[in-house]
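Project outcomes to date are best conveyed with an example. Our students and postdoctoral researchers have been running inverse folding experiments weekly, and each run begins with a structure described purely in C-alpha cells. The record below, which covers 130 residues, was selected by the lab manager from last quarter's runs and is presented without edits.
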C-alpha cells in the first residue's frame, strides 16, 4: 500500500524533453521532502533535484545539481499526490535510470542527499541519443 511509482521515461533525441512523474500511494507527498536521483551503468547514484515539503517550514525550497540546473524543473501537485520533473534540452549524458525518493519533512533545505529517504521508487529509464 505504501508505494512510490515513477513514470514518463523513454527514449528521446538530444534537445528533446520529457516529464517524469512520481506518484505516491499510502502516504501524502505533501508532508515529505522529495528527491530525484539518477544512476547510469557503472556510475554512482547522483542527486539531481529535490523539493521540500511546505509543511516543514521550508516552503517548497528547491535544489538542482549543476549538471541539470536551468534545464530541469521540479514541481509538485498535491491534489494528485505527485511530484514532477520536467526535463528540457536533454543531453546524451542525461541517459540513466531516474528514481524518486521521499523523506519526512525536516524543516531544512535539501541539497540532493539521499540520507533519510524512507521510500524509493523502482525507477524509470531515460535514454537520450540520436
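After processing, the design step wrote out the following sequence:
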Amino acid at each position: 500500500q505504501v508505494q512510490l511509482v515513477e513514470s514518463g521515461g523513454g527514449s528521446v533525441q538530444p534537445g528533446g524533453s520529457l516529464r517524469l512523474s512520481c506518484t505516491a500511494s499510502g502516504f501524502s507527498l505533501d508532508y515529505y521532502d522529495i528527491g530525484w536521483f539518477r544512476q547510469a551503468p557503472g556510475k554512482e547514484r547522483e542527486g539531481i533535484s529535490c523539493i521540500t515539503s511546505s509543511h516543514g517550514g521550508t516552503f517548497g525550497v528547491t535544489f538542482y545539481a549543476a549538471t541539470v540546473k536551468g534545464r530541469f524543473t521540479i514541481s509538485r501537485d498535491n491534489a494528485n499526490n505527485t511530484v514532477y520533473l520536467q526535463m528540457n534540452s536533454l543531453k546524451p549524458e542525461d541517459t540513466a535510470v531516474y528514481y524518486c525518493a521521499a523523506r519526512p519533512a525536516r524543516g531544512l533545505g535539501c541539497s540532493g542527499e539521499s540520507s533519510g529517504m524512507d521510500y524509493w521508487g523502482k525507477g524509470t529509464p531515460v535514454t537520450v541519443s540520436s
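The mean pLDDT is 93. The radius of gyration is 14 Å. The training component of this project remains on track.
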